[in-house]
Amino acid sequence: MAPTVPLAVLALVALVAPGLGVAPGCDYPAHRWCSSRDTAAACQVQGRCPSLPSPAAEPVQLSLYYESLCPACRAFLVLRLFPTWLLLPEEMLSITLVPYGNAQEKNVTGKLDFDCQHGPEECLGNMMEACLMHEAKNFSTYFPVIFCLESGTSVTKNLEACLQIYAPEVDSGRIAACVQGDMGVALMHHNAQVTEALDPPHQYVPWITINGKHTDELQAQAEASLLGLVCHLYQGEKPEICGSSKAPKFPSGCRR
Fold first, then answer.
1. Residue 221: which domain range?
2. Where is the secretion signal located (predicted)?
């Protein structure tokens, strides 16, 4: 590893011997060599600039394709995904939720309709959560509400109570209007298209992709220890919480 040299010494070297140890294409004065990572790279002095900030690491991207009444989906969301999101810094994990799962889209006399694996109640739950996301916009606002819905006795009947606890600023009337109107159908159509475009095609739910990729191994690791998986994949500085953990066994997935 190259020794760390104080900036003042670098500046002195530049004054005494301008070309010594600095890239020929460096057009910056010595006092700016360590001002940014790009400048240090241009002057090839990165190893001599101890104060340079570390490059920001990309968050681990997780997408969950699920349906609102599937027991395995609810278990993963409530017991794995939500606790992991709470435990990790925001910059480590980016989550996308797609409530649709094994539903089927159909065109009835020019109007879209949906059949869901667990019946009309699940279709309503899927659409409510899609409309909640649309109205609340911010992930940190709507995710606790979805956690509340999925962990409660009824996904479709507890919206008012969950909003009062976790997001009182969100208007339940707007969510209801979305569910009852064209916007809810449009949101479900979008989720249908996104789900059907999966490669490889989903075979069951919950279906988990990590950084846009799905494999049996990644699915198993996410279900066994999502926290450990995210900590392993994240390339930036890791918090103390990162480590191994054991977790309860999940119900089997909801197959198509």
1. 61-237
2. 1-21
